[in-house]
Design goal:
The relative contact order is 0.16. With 336 residues, the chain is α/β, with parallel strands linked by helices. Helix 1 crosses helix 9. It is globular. It has two domains: 136 residues, NAD(P)-binding Rossmann-like Domain (Rossmann fold, 3-Layer(aba) Sandwich); 185 residues, Dihydrodipicolinate Reductase, domain 2. The strands form three sheets. The protein has a six-stranded parallel sheet with strand order 5-2-1-6-7-8, sandwiched between helices. It contains nine helices and 14 strands.
Length: 336
């Protein structure tokens, strides 16, 4: 790839698209030109990049001529339609949707875990599910050291994972409750303010949701661990930004808290915040807009022989989406 590529952001006006633009600037990504693409209704909107004002252009089938690299965050339907077109035009796509994640021909990458997989791309690289990426930032180093066989986990997922309308819904409902007004809802099937919903994504015939099964399916692919098992309950909570996951993990080898701590202290992209006596543990409130994820509440699992419990949190718009996509793009630049 050109060491100074022409980059496009597809879905530039969405929450993740805006974070992608910010991340490209903050990490000083060596692009020579940035093109912002979105649907016709967003054409003409202006966004800032490196002190310049860029106008959003319409995403069309011919929009990728001359573009070297495209970061997609416009939903699975758009990705399925336009990513293959971009790849055929000679553009490498980093796709944030679920469209290609389980395609055996498409690498699914968290750079701290399996950066080398980008070498196998055929024009498209997939970005993983946000909750899966955040959980694996802590789980994978432990798996590499002790051999993880299975996990039981519960997620605590921020409303921004659903989009801007969900953030507005939480804000509106908080005001309605405080003022004693009837609570209105449009995005979620139930009130989210002062409530938690054990329902993220659509339900499957076996009773799990699609989101819950991503942890197992995507985890197997990212970690190159086909026997990995994960039983997960995904929960939407009234938090604006940053997801958290409580994990109980079972390992092949005996694991102590201190041995696990030493592994996690060396893990890239991960901070250890684990002093419960001082009330110090990862909090989504303080991890919002931070690049690194954080892990804490380390303890021996009292229900597993070789088990460890931990709590991991991270900004799902960054490590769960935009930051991870830009990190993948940085790995693509390293390819000959």
């Amino acid at each position: 790839m050109n060491p100074n590529p022409h980059v496009a952001v597809v879905g530039a006006t969405g929450a993740v698209g805006i974070e992608m633009i910010k991340t490209l600037e903050q990490r000083n990504f060596p692009l020579r030109q940035l093109t912002l693409l979105a649907s016709a209704r967003s054409v003409g909107k202006q966004l800032k990049f490196r002190g310049q004002t860029l106008a959003v252009q319409e995403l069309t089938k011919t929009a990728f001529a001359g573009i070297d690299l495209a970061l997609f965050s416009a939903g699975g339907g758009i990705s399925r339609e336009f990513a293959p077109l971009a790849a055929r035009a000679g553009c490498v796509v980093v796709d944030n949707s679920s469209a290609f994640r389980m395609d055996p021909a498409v690498p699914l990458v968290v750079p701290e875990i399996n950066a080398a997989d980008v070498k196998t791309h055929r024009g498209i690289v997939a970005n993983p599910n946000c909750t899966t990426a955040i959980a694996l930032m802590a789980l994978y180093p432990l798996h590499a050291a002790f051999g993880c066989t299975r996990i039981f986990a519960s997620s605590y997922q921020a409303v921004s994972g659903t989009g801007a309308k969900a953030i507005a819904e939480l804000e509106r409902q908080v005001g309605q409750v405080v003022q004693g007004q009837p609570v209105t809802r449009e995005v979620y099937p139930h009130q989210i303010a002062f409530n938690v919903l054990p329902h993220v994504d659509s339900f499957l015939p076996d009773g799990y949701t699609k989101e819950e099964m991503k942890m197992q399916n995507e985890g197997r692919k990212i970690m190159h661990h086909p026997a990995f098992r994960a039983s997960v309950t995904c929960v939407r909570v009234p938090v604006y930004r940053a997801h958290s996951v409580a994990v109980s993990a079972e390992f092949e080898k005996p694991v102590t808290v201190e041995a696990a701590r030493q592994v996690l202290l060396r893990a890239p992209g991960l901070d250890v915040i684990d002093e419960p006596a001082k009330n110090e543990y990862p909090l989504p409130l303080y991890l919002a807009q931070k690049d690194n994820c954080a892990v804490g509440r380390l303890r021996k699992d009292c229900a597993f022989d070789n088990g460890l419990c931990f709590w991991v949190a991270g900004d799902q718009l960054l490590k769960g989406a935009a930051l991870n996509a830009v990190q993948i793009a940085e790995e693509l630049l390293k390819l000959p």
